Amino acid sequence: MRRLAACLMSCLFAVTAQAAEVTTYTLDNGLEIVVLEDHRAPVVVHMVWYRAGAADEPPGKSGIAHYLEHLLFKGTDDLAPGEFSDTVARNGGSDNAFTSWDYTGYFQRVAADRLELMMQMEADRMRDLRLTGTDILTERDVIIEERNQRVENDPGALFNEQRRAAMYLNHPYGIPIIGWRHEAEALTLDDALAFYRTFYAPNNAILIVAGDVEPEDVLELAKTHYGPLAPTLGLGDRQRPAEPPQLSERRLTFEDPRVAQPYVVRTYLAPERDPGAQEEAAALVLLAELLGGNGATSVLGRKLQFEAQKAVFTSAFYQAVSYDDTSFGFYIVPVPGLSLAEAEAALDQAVDEFLAEGIDPDQFARIKMQLRASRIYAEDSPQRLARRYGAALTSGLTVEDIEAWPDILQAVTAEDVLAAAERVFDRRRSVTGWLMQPQSQEVTQ
Amino acid sequence: MIRLAFALTGLLFAALPARAAVEIQEVVSPGGITAWLVEEHSIPFVALELQFKGGASLDAAGKRGAINLMTGLIEEGAGDLDAQGFAEAVESLAARFSFDVFDDGLSISAQFLTETREASVALLKSALTEPRFDDDAIERVRQQVLSIIRSDATDPDEIASQAFDGLFFGDHPYGSSLNGTLESVGALTRDDIVAAHDRVISRDHLFVAAVGDITAEELGAMLDDLLGDLPASGAPEPALAEIGVAGGITVVPFETPQSVAIFGHSGIARDDPDFFAAFVMNQILGGGNFSSRLMEEVREKRGLTYGVYSYLMDKDYADLVVGRVASANDRIADAIAVIKDEWARVAAEGVSDAELADAKTYLTGAYPLRFDGNARIAGLLVGMQTAGLPIDYIATRNDKVNAVTAEDIRRVAARLIDPEALHFVVVGQPEGLEATN
């Protein structure tokens, strides 16, 4: 096996040279354009991403970015409420939208010959939204039901909200995207329109078109439909409250009778991929893979699931793409009979041992091999590729950063990973959460 | 602002739906194994999809959960490799194997690079033909399954779907969770796991598709190498499921703020002459996009839910029409009333010509969009085979949609859709809802 892996490195380098064609443009009004060509099927994904998400909301208006996302389907000067999606459907396409802390995105997936119609409609709703009072009240009920479905009905999701709020002392990443319930219930038309007029503009947007298209054709269509739109003047850099030095570890226990499987999660404040400086984040990506990537081969899996047999599941996670400081974490789901205190101690011991023992060179090589191969597999889905570009570009990275990323990952050394681990595992900048049934039922099975 | 009306009309009628650019070859290996193949050499990997028909429904009596546990163990050691050795070998090759089981099949989705094809296939063959089922692996995966069973017991969606299945299908395998119960899984032995493997993994249950960087000749040799040693036959087919419930409402009390409802009644077979009429009818009633009647009435007009849909559930041994909705405890009764009204309306009146025309353009336009990506296409090709569809089906499918008339829909809606037969299973603390059980 080892010999085979060595041979693969050279083969793969030859292969990635043929990666998907990426072409970029910028219109005079500031709209950035990224075209990702894939001519295997006559399909296109058309996306507009705004550099505005839940972390850009005004204080007290949590959920407004997401609420506005829903309202963008409620009509413009040229489109009746619902007509946008109905038109996409009549053309055999599907459409939807998504909101994160750093971005809001809209997309349609259609036959490639319908691209112009999508552009026409998306450009229309970038500046010409028209909303009525009844529509927006009904839609507010919908987002409350969405919150019920995603959060209130799921103790794990409620727990995540509480942990996140504890992770960030000052930065709005601590506020849920869907909004705190009491604030989401009180959002108004004026709140939505204020956010819309500021942030929905060509100079705050990125157009991504992926699929069976020629870049010059996309540019011409974009000029026609997005070109006439006026930018928001005076839109400066994103200004968000920053984290103060975090000096004290936070711990929380969330109890809910609906919890069937207790577990422990620990997160640490961590640096994200920064433009021109992605090395530390690359080391943390490798660290997450080494610690908790695969249950059978990772450090936590080996030590806690296979050797000590104290865990049913373990994992480590790190969100590298983010505009501001992100988090690195891991969790342990203990075997029946093991308390959460014991589980947490076992988790800490496993991480300490890892730092003392160092990195298994074979595991390190296998992970790098998989990262190389993932570039080839990623080409199978233009939609996923487009989402990767959109998320990175709205999180402050450039196309150059995205293209440099695979080589930066490959250049990470074992020493880099251990050094990054020593920096990130600072308990003063951590949150430890226990999810469990009320009272002493923590060890129920 | 640019006016849209003219362009909308022009584009809508001028453009024809895209054609699915998929050329399927039937490959029969020298050893007699049939597969469907789409060659796609632009990316140097292959997506291989295997499905063993029957899946978890082939569990032996009293051994519920054995096939699911066995599926979780396929990658936990094979041949000379223990669980960790096997996982390391997969990683070294940068291959991707996933093993999944559902009511009607056990599916194996494999992706491997052209460069490592031979070694990847050898590894997959080892997993299929010489799994070790080591005692420590069985215990480890058993604990994972038990953890999932415990979690499902307090998840309103899972409670709803398990209660629904139990009501509708009773003692048939469809009537219980394929995970099994804490008791049944706790009692499974290694012999049960070996027996479960023998029941499912066999040539007579097998369907194969491959998409990617491989020729027909290469695939033929690969099929014999990978699958030639499998036993000829496994367990016999399960019986047809009888639907054992009439219309009504079943409430499963559970303390949670939002009630989850799953509803349904008997359906229509895939090979029924009116299947396509029913399919188009359902698209209008509760199909998956924002334009359906249920979305319009329950969500868009009244804000009663985040999502509501219905679909034709065509399983191998039962056909239902099924839907789902979730609303706050004090609003779920309203949502259910609106759904019953829509059920009655389509049964009595059918659909309008405009709705029919829109549904056709959506369905015929969306169909070719499914065929993007090697892995997606491989999955679709196996699905077509297990449904008994011919290899030229893709070329004729849109014609079948276009042939549906408003009269066809009126006929099939009157026969199929029945608000009185509709049974709702509601999990939560619904207010103002009278349970009939």
Shape of chain A: globular
General form of chain B: globular
Mean pLDDT of chain A, nearest integer?
92
Element pattern of chain B in H and E: HEEEHEEHEEHHHHHEHEEHHEEHHHHHE
**Helix-strand topology string of chain A:** HEEEHHEEHHHHHEHEEHHEEHHHHHE
Residue stretches of chain A low in confidence (pLDDT < 50, at least 5 long) are 1-18, 441-445
Produce the secondary structure layout.
The complex is a heterodimer of chains A (445) and B (437).
Chain A: H1 2-16, E1 22-26, E2 32-37, E3 43-50, H2 64-71, H3 83-90, E4 94-99, E5 104-111, H4 115-127, H5 133-152, H6 155-167, H7 181-184, H8 189-199, E6 205-211, H9 215-225, E7 250-255, E8 263-270, H10 279-292, H11 299-307, E9 311-318, E10 326-334, H12 340-357, H13 361-378, H14 382-393, H15 399-411, H16 414-424, E11 430-436
Parallel strand pairs in A: 2-6, 7-11
Antiparallel strand pairs in A: 1-2, 3-5, 3-6, 4-5, 8-10, 8-11, 9-10
Chain B: H1 5-14, E1 25-28, E2 34-39, E3 45-53, H2 66-73, E4 77-78, E5 81-82, H3 83-93, E6 96-102, E7 105-113, H4 117-129, H5 135-152, H6 156-169, H7 182-186, H8 190-200, E8 206-212, H9 216-227, E9 248-253, E10 258-266, H10 275-286, H11 293-300, E11 308-315, E12 318-328, H12 332-349, H13 353-369, H14 374-386, H15 393-402, H16 406-416, E13 423-428
Parallel strand pairs in B: 2-8, 9-13
Antiparallel strand pairs in B: 1-2, 3-7, 3-8, 4-5, 6-7, 10-12, 10-13, 11-12
Helix pairs in contact in B: 2-8, 4-9, 10-13, 10-16, 11-12, 12-16, 13-15
Verbal overview:
The complex is a heterodimer of chains A (445) and B (437). With 445 residues, chain A is of the alpha+beta class. Chain A is 44% helix and 18% strand. Chain A has 16 helices and 11 strands. Chain A has helices at 2-16, 64-71, 83-90, 115-127, 133-152, 155-167, 181-184, 189-199, 215-225, 279-292, 299-307, 340-357, 361-378, 382-393, 399-411, 414-424, and strands spanning 22-26, 32-37, 43-50, 94-99, 104-111, 205-211, 250-255, 263-270, 311-318, 326-334, 430-436. In chain A, strands 1-2-6-3-5-4 form a 6-stranded mixed sheet, sandwiched between helices. Chain A has a 5-stranded mixed sheet with strand order 7-11-8-10-9, sandwiched between helices. In chain A, strand 1 (22-26) and strand 2 (32-37) form a beta hairpin. In chain A, helix 1 (2-16) packs parallel to helix 13, helix 2 crosses helix 8 and helix 11 crosses helix 12. Chain A is globular. Residues 1-18 and 441-445 of chain A have low confidence and may be disordered. In chain B, helix 10 (275-286) crosses helix 13 and helix 10 (275-286) crosses helix 16. Helix content of chain B is 44%, strand content 20%. In chain B, the strands form 3 sheets. In chain B, strands 1-2-8-3-7-6 form a 6-stranded mixed sheet, with helices on both faces. In chain B, strands 9-13-10-12-11 form a 5-stranded mixed sheet, sandwiched between helices. Chain B has a two-stranded antiparallel sheet with strand order 4-5. Chain B has helices at residues 5-14, 66-73, 83-93, 117-129, 135-152, 156-169, 182-186, 190-200, 216-227, 275-286, 293-300, 332-349, 353-369, 374-386, 393-402, 406-416, and strands at residues 25-28, 34-39, 45-53, 77-78, 81-82, 96-102, 105-113, 206-212, 248-253, 258-266, 308-315, 318-328, 423-428. Chain B folds into 2 domains: 2-10 and 20-227, Metalloenzyme, LuxS/M16 peptidase-like (Cytochrome Bc1 Complex, Chain A, domain 1, 2-Layer Sandwich), CATH 3.30.830; 248-428, 2-Layer Sandwich (Cytochrome Bc1 Complex, Chain A, domain 1). In chain B, a hairpin with a 2-residue loop joins strand 4 (77-78) and strand 5. Chain B is of the alpha+beta class. Chain B has 16 helices and 13 strands. The relative contact order of chain B is 0.16. At the A-B interface, helix 1, helix 3, strand 5, helix 4 and helix 5 of A face helix 1, helix 3, helix 5, helix 11 and strand 12 of B.
